[in-house]
Specification:
256 residues; alpha/beta; Rossmann fold; Hypothetical Protein, Haloacid Dehalogenase-like Hydrolase, Chain: A, domain 2; 2 domains; 7-stranded mixed beta sheet; 31% helix
């Protein structure tokens, strides 16, 4: 029997879009072709400003019911009533959590200082800027820096695949901050996401009204436990691991 989910949940980088790239017209048309009755949720480690750089606001409002930024710790309602003349025309913030609800500023400073020392000591060929990015409920850490060019990013991807640098850094962070209740996950192509231990992507189910056993998840880092798609995929009734938006389109053919 073909599984007909009540909801589809999508990762962004490497799934809906190429990393740090604009969603393609082919993916948008594919999403439009999915059954209208099937709920659609976007769950990503990125914050809303980066989401809108890759999936423009009009697409978010047209296609998705909710957008879960920073692993679902910052949630926007995007299922808006177009006939309500007094209603919002912008994604509506419905939930926000911050690390500062659980950690002091000196705690955050200690984490940041340790990350910057790792970046300083790393053997990465390129070091650009923005090694540590504060996202309220998450700290995003990049050894090459988020200001890198596409060519520098591609070079780092090859280095990380060879050296397993981020996997080693995750283990270092786990040892250094044991007992802090923190989670360290490889995210995207160049980053490590740092947040509370229970704030992985499966935290999105705190606000997603559909039962996990009625959901299917699409992501690019599912089968690696240090990847940030693992937990949410394991909660869903079914999942598809894809390596690109082109593979996503192929997988979605079975749900049309």
């Amino acid at each position: 029997m073909i599984f007909k989910p009540e909801a589809m949940i999508f990762d962004m980088d490497g799934t809906l879009t190429d990393p740090r790239s604009l969603i393609s017209s082919d993916v948008v048309e594919c999403l439009r072709s999915l059954p209208a009755a099937t709920k659609k949720y976007l769950v990503t480690g990125s914050n809303m400003s980066k989401i809108e750089e890759q999936v423009p606001k009009d697409i978010l409002l047209e296609i998705f019911d909710q957008v879960h930024a920073c692993n679902g710790t910052i949630v926007y309602n995007t299922y808006l009533d177009a006939d309500d003349e007094h209603g919002s025309l912008e994604p509506e913030l419905i939930h926000r959590s911050t690390l500062l609800d659980y950690y002091s500023q000196p705690d955050i400073n200690r984490i940041t200082s340790f990350l910057l020392k790792i970046a300083a000591d790393a053997h990465t060929k390129y070091k650009t800027g923005t090694f540590v990015e504060w996202r309220e409920s998450q700290i995003n850490f990049s050894l090459i820096g988020r200001d890198c060019s596409k060519e520098q990013r591609d070079d780092y991807v090859k280095w990380d695949e060879k050296s397993k640098e981020r996997e080693k850094i995750v283990r270092t962070l786990q040892e250094e901050f044991a007992g802090w209740g923190l989670s360290f996950k490889i995210g995207g192509q160049i980053s490590i996401d740092i947040t509370r231990a229970n704030w992985d992507k499966s935290y999105a189910f705190e606000r997603i009204p559909t039962s996990p056993n009625q959901c299917v998840f699409f992501g690019d880092k599912i089968t690696v436990e240090s990847g940030n798609d693992f937990e949410i995929a394991m909660r869903c009734a079914k999942y598809h691991e894809v390596a690109s938006p082109a593979e996503l389109i192929l997988e979605l053919q079975g749900y049309m």
